[in-house]
Amino acid sequence: MARNRELNQKMRDERREQILSNALILFAAKGLSATKITDISAASGISQGLIYHYFQSKEEIFRELISSAFEKMNTACRELEKLPLPPREKIILAIEKLLEGFDVYENTSYYYLLILQATVSEAVPQEVKDIIRNQSDFPYEVMERILIEGQKEGSVRAYDARDLAVVFWTTIKGLGLNKAAHGERFKSPDPRILINIFLKE
Amino acid sequence: MARNRELNQKMRDERREQILSNALILFAAKGLSATKITDISAASGISQGLIYHYFQSKEEIFRELISSAFEKMNTACRELEKLPLPPREKIILAIEKLLEGFDVYENTSYYYLLILQATVSEAVPQEVKDIIRNQSDFPYEVMERILIEGQKEGSVRAYDARDLAVVFWTTIKGLGLNKAAHGERFKSPDPRILINIFLKE
DNA sequence: GTCTATATCCAGATAGAC
DNA sequence: GTCTATCTGGATATAGAC
Fold it and tell me: Where is the HTH tetR-type domain (chains A, B) (predicted)?
């Protein structure tokens, strides 16, 4: 009996994941309001009504995706900061991994697009805005700290660290968007171009 | 009689402009599909039905805004390229003017957001997609040509010029988005950070 | 030119059969 | 768990009065 309940729960979770992953691509491409429940159900190969056995509303699906996007990003930042490496190496590693991510994991660029849509759009539920407000500064803070450390170390250029952190993330986000928008045609730029923005030669 | 017709036409055009400028802000913030005709009419202080005396549909408003956004951007690029300046100076000028634009003209960042929404979204009419496909490469091409000239001149770093052009525009677009998303809190970074990406010291 | 009222459509969510 | 049928609300666009 308990076995059965566990198995059911597992199947339920898997189905939820499947719906979420289809919804991610749709939300990223069309935004929250232009994505219909029928789009999501069709992409998942199930009837429209069945969606509501797994989620309470379209907004709930959106909210879960946004939460997990920030969770992934902020976890990665936390781990980067804790690595036992000098700031200079952290910056190089971050840029290389982020650029690599665009090519290797297809979902990555969709997440960038999703977060962007949600950050920018006024047409998202309040709870989602709250998640964004609470979580979106963290990557900037981490990068600013690393850059300041790097300036003490002497490896990072002597511009305002906050400015450098802003340039760091806007460039990464911009590239993620480019990839999402142009798909096949997109080619990551030479990482040395980006590394050179922050590090002295 | 002709006087009257001219005057009427002028008033009509002015009203259209006023509707367009309100719609720009709404579309940029919420996207095409989440922006309701009533949002636009309310922002313009007129009844919902009256919108249809000036435009055939919500999509037509969107299309006009996209057209004029690309027109402005591509005209600016064409003029930049024609300036009687060495490549090095063109790059510095472009970065300074683009960053300045964020602070001086409020509308600029909304246009970036609008173009981004339209480029990325599958939920836009076919005609809009066609405009985007035909117009969106031009700024990249211009910048690539300027960068190549600069490499011949010896002032521009020796990375792949296409990569540099991509980094140029993704960084600018990213900053435009930041400004649009964070409004008040946004502060343009030191232009020298960006100039240094492209030019040798 | 401008408004109010309304026809029409479409999407989110629910109910109930299997 | 899954589907089909349906309720309900809201948004586009039109019609018609002023």
Answer: 13-73
Whether B36 contacts chain A with CB within 8 A: no
Helix (H) or strand (E) holding B146: helix B138-153
A17/D10 CA-to-C1' distance in Å: 31
pLDDT tens readout for residues B84-137: 999 999 999 999 999 999 989 888 999 988 998 898 888 999 999 999 999 999
Nearest to A113 among B32, B120, B171 (CB): B120
Residue A15 neighbours by CB under 8 Å, 6+ apart? A54
Closest CA to A175 of A162, A165, A188: A188
CA distances B166 to A53, B47, B66, Å, are 44, 44, 21
Round to a whole number and report the distance in Å from the CA of B47 to the C1' of D18: 15
Place of tokens 């993704």: B170
Contacts across the A-B interface (CB distance below 8 Å): 125
Residues of chain A with C-beta less than 8 angstroms from the C-beta of B164 = 189, 193
User: For the whole model, what pTM was predicted?
Assistant: 0.95
CA atoms within 13 A on the CB side of A96: 8
Which sequence spans correspond to the domains of chain B? 2-198
Rounded to an integer, what distance in angstroms lies between the CA atom of residue A122 and that of residue A111? 18
- Residue A154 Rama label (left phi>0; alpha psi -120 to 50; beta): left
User: Binning pLDDT at 50, 70 and 90, where does residue B1 land?
Assistant: low
Query: What topology is assigned to A59-198 in CATH?
Result: Tetracycline Repressor; domain 2 (1.10.357)
Task: Name the strand (E) or helix (H) holding A200.
Answer: none
